[in-house]
Amino acid sequence: xxxxxxxxxxxxxxxxxxxxxxxxxxxxxxxxxxxxxxxxxxxxxxxxxxxxxxxxxxxxxxxxxxxxxxxxxxxxxxxxxxxxxxxxxxxxxxxxxxxxxxxxxxxxxxxxxxxxxxxxxxxxxxxxxxxxxxxxxxxxxxxxxxxxxxxxxxxxxxxxxxxxxxxxxxxxxxxxxxxxxxxxxxxxxxxxxxxxxxxxxxxxxxxxxxxx
Length: 212
Prior knowledge:
The protein is of the alpha+beta class.
């Protein structure tokens, strides 16, 4: 059994090196991508959509040319474990999703997917084996047409300099960058970030700090 061009073992190693661990969602994601790839016409230039931000985007990036960085993969976070590969010019494609009805025949996978069993009570090896055994049996596929125009343009458009932090940002975001409009994840202000460490503070290594 293969996932794309890889044996199961090779795919597991690839997942671990890229994702950090062999997450169950990435094993399932591998089967999902493989099923989608087998159902789009050969030679079609395609883009991808992931309907979740968890695990599935990594499977798409590992097994297709579509990545977040090159703009061929869009994450439209509906919270559904589903993906779509579609003709980037025509919009015709296939959508693969976890079929909850089919999960009833695979209780180990069902309990993990619906969080019916606490993580400490799960058997990771058994779960992994059941996912591999199930393969595409827990998935369903449908034909779809993507509204390409409705997705919007991928480019940033015009670039402006934010009057608050003096960094470049897409002008379409408003009179200042989104971070300075209050959407940033940092506790410090742009001015504090620019100033760097406070005067009089000395940076020491972890080893030095432990000895002191």
